[in-house]
Specification:
The strands form 2 sheets. Strands 1-7-6-5-4-2-3 form a 7-stranded mixed β-sheet, sandwiched between helices. Strands 8-9-12-11-10 form a 5-stranded mixed β-sheet. The N and C termini lie far apart (53 Å). By secondary structure, the protein is an alpha/beta fold. Helix content is 39%, strand content 15%. The protein has 15 helices and 12 strands.
Amino acid sequence: MSKRQDNSRADATRCIHSGEDRHGQAAPLTTPIVQASVFTIPGVEGLRRYAAGDSGMYLYSRYGNPTVTAVEEKIAALEGAEAAVATSSGMAAELIAVLAACGAGDEIVSMLDVYGGTVKLFEQVLPRCGIKTRFIPYHDIQHAARYFTRKTRMLFLESPTNPTLRCVDLRALCELGRKRKACVVVDNTFATPVLQKPLEFGADMVLHSATKYLGGHSDITAGVVAGSKKWMDAARTMMIYTGCVLDPGCAYLMLRGLKTLDVRVERACRNAMRIADALAHHPKVARVYYPGLPGSESHEIARRQMKDFGMMVSFDLRGGGAAAERFINSLKLWYLAASLGGVESTVSYPVLTSHIGLSAKQWKLLGVSPATVRLSVGIEDCGDLLEDIEQALEQA
């Protein structure tokens, strides 16, 4: 499929066809798993072509694999990127994005409202590489420029955030990064490219934990980063050097999951809106975090830059941590699980999962407490999901 043809098509079509067009070929309808670590080369001249950058050749699966290439092309099409690099996890995608842009002595400016694992990467791992991070609390995001120094090489953003679903003005922050000559990276995991395309707002790179919505069936661990050819060439080099390669069997499962991404997102968004509204009117719920609610602090920003309001809903229970634990333990239909983004609905307890190990001060700045519960809304019948929530709230 030509780039021009693909760019003219809707996301629902790209989810199925991008990277996998085989019209006029006697080929399987689904992309096969190329389960090979090494590829044969047609003579020394073939090696010479590969060394010169022949992208149609494969040498070794850590460098590239046909099944993985299909995933990368599909994600690039969905994000409106020139290229993408698939990795072994979302954290691996973050690591190669950082290493593509930063070196020893450089600094990152990051929102504090990011995935807890991202905070740990920035605080505990990157300093060993000589890379320092300055964190911006959400309440000070309008003063982000104050956190930049002459050493800043990257601005790292996440919108909506985990788990309080705060949204930030991507266009304004990308403009700030551009003025300061910093590479702007956006974690788009919660929105997916179906709801939000950060590259359109000026981001240089966009990344995902593909373990979540892109896979969609809770059976893979994967990541992906997308952007211009310049940045993706650098990211691929870091992927190769660090060994953060995606297995072709996992890539096959991601291809399968991506084909239903658009319809899964549509159904889960519809369910999430109904559930958020019901929680907002429940006497045992102190606060609901969902940008689709008109009273949400992020409602207007989400309306401007997202197609819909997302599939995640978080809330605080009036009874604190004890009530939150009783609620979670009383659920029958919702699974207690640390991850998110599958077809099945799950519940998570952030203080013991995604944000475990963070300080009480960080929890306060993030708006997370023992009373906070996070829901990943799936595609089941919404009436059944709501009934289960109502019954569990009676026990909270």
